[in-house]
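Input record (one chain):
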Amino acid sequence: MAQPFTEPCNRGIIEAEPCPRALGREATPRQRRLVLAACVLASSMVFIDGSALTVALPALKADLGADLAAVQWVLNGYVLALASLTLIGGVMADVYGKARMLAAGCLLFALASVACALAPSASFLIAARVAQGVAAAIVAPASLALIGATYPRDQRSQAIGVWAAASALTTAGGPILGGWLTETFGWPAIFWINPPLAFVAYGLLRLYAPADRNEPRRFDVVGAATWRQRWPRSPGHSAASARARRVRAQKTPRRLPAFSLRHSSAASVLWRTPFGSAGATIP
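The corresponding structure, as predicted from the sequence alone:
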């Protein structure tokens, strides 16, 4: 069933960038399609690597001789870096240029993927996965912002729909692709598929991306370094904190507010049935 309203997030994405047609720098339809293809390829790497590696953990654990905690951090290091730095990546795209930062993020993601595929130990793989997450935090917001800067306002909803559909398909198909690659070529093959995609996206951006329209402002390095002081903590620490809060809540006596008979009588008079019957009240 279609909803008769537009969600604020979707409206914000569509209306965030000024219309290139109004600014006199509209790209050709072929140029827009190729830029959209580059953005889809770049974001697909981010979402595939977020889900494809989950099915390869047993083979990875046996090959590297890692324990369960190290294997968990292979996944968590990527997700934490991506979630924690996405906003900073979006600001960098606004300040230094969307196409420029997206191209740089693709190259960094490719280099981090090569490091992951050649990792000799679990510690090295965790560090490379964190580098992958940093690159993903640049690629994900820059790809979506570049679509908004390339397409006219009346065509952005369709382009963003294509980007979102491709992101959902790659996320859902990541475990299937990861399982097939692991069974056929081994777990490093999950990372070897990223450099070709990154280089194709980089070439499309260099050839067809419109000129960046940078915002005239300075990147706040101090603000970017201090806003993440509350870095996400480990699951064990969070669970321990939650248990401590529950224990304190159980030991603390509950204090109910004073409520006189006069207040309860007045409430019983005002609390009526949905049918409006004056005689039916809550005693």
